[in-house]
Amino acid sequence: MQEKFLLGIDAGTSVVKSVVYNLEGKQISLSRRRVAIETPKPGWAEQDMNKVWEMVRQTIVEVVNKAKISPSSIAAIGVAGQGDGCRLLDEKLRPVRPSILWLDGRAGEIVTQWEKKGIDREGFRISGSTIFSGAPAAIIKWLSLNDPDSLKKAKCFLFAKDWIKFKLTGKICTDPSDASRAPIDLKKLTYSEELFELFEISPYLSIFPEITFSGEIIGETTRNIASECNLKAGIPVISGMIDVVATPVGLGILEKGEAYTIVGTTCFSAVLSSRPLFEPPGVGMNLAYAFPDRYVRAMPSMAGTPNLDWFVDNFFLNEKKRFKEEKFYEFLEENVKKISPGSEGILYHPYINPGGERAPFVKPSAKAQFFGISLRHTKWHLLRAVYEGVALSVLDCFSHIPVEVAEVRISGGGATSSLWCQILSDVIGKPIHVSSAQELGTLGAAIAAGAAVGLYPDIKEAAKELVKFSHFYKPNMENHSKYLEIYRLYRSIYNHLWNDWDERRSLLRKLQEV
How much is the pTM? Predict the structure, then answer.
């Protein structure tokens, strides 16, 4: 009997990945491609949808070849992808315009106005999620005011993974986890006419896709696409899920009260619950999970690893050229360890994303900053402050979720850093577990796909069997006490800067007009 395999695809923000797994959850082969983020104007972030698909197609071809398996041995395909943003198809199901990504900041003023009018709070009452500049409602409102022709041509709205599913199967739909980011009534898991009216985008309700359960088979690979991708026609494809739900499935997050943080492009901290949690109001988001009667209560800050990438590229470029990547980060971390917790008085706020911040507060004008630099400080102090600043933002996010957690499971690029994991454990004051798998979004999608075709009893049983952990970090409670004092100052500073961020944005516009 032919051995069966699962294909997991993750259409991420800057990297798309395909992974072949065996039925024991072992990674057989992996293929990645970088996808360019275009910034035609300051604060904008877009991608060419056809180029994204081409990169995904290339990873599928490569990963099957690397695995040295027959395409007929792939039993099912699961797809995950970045959330929010806006992708529009015309009546011929071709992209209307480049996709607008979740980290885009063009709708910032609209969000600010909604905040001042209380519209965001009213929307949260129904959706359980706050609006930020990269959310579908804000982008569509911006398009209606600034690019109405695109909306006139639009017949379908898609999320990132839905575009990949469409290319594979020709079917258009989304799932409850991605749909949770649309104007939705979370308790009913249906689009909310009241919210579309509240955001003044009612004419565009009709372009939003059908909502289909994450683990449901929505179609099969078409003959044409199978030929293009070195696949077999007729492979079942599931509805899939947003990457920040696929990842906790890959982490074995199954029961209420279990917590996780994705230290990636965004820094996504969340707790699983048995119902939507609307406290505190107007902050963060609730997402339907990969299976019924579970919800993710999340505080997704806008930037995690990009803070480190920016600092390294600007302050350690010469050193980076001298080392191979693995050795380079070993070099950095060995030197950072020489700096005591608290970076000798320097604090860093990691609000480096062009769209500002969305959790645990919404502030499109928020910006990153160092606080407390003196003549005795070096770039090593600043670098440790960056590591700590991201960790403090994670603590800030968990502090705003009304659930006590016992431990946190960590994934994303930041999870590969033992230094960062230990700092996170010390700052949060909880044990940290790191998965032995690296591509958790693809693993979660593959697990759901395997359950859909009957290879596992269900998603929960599959995850219990397949998910394993490689590293464990225990908090140093003495350091934790110090970090709690630092955290109080961390929050005080950004509260004092609240109006100053708006003033800075206004000043920047004036300077650009000169």
Answer: 0.90
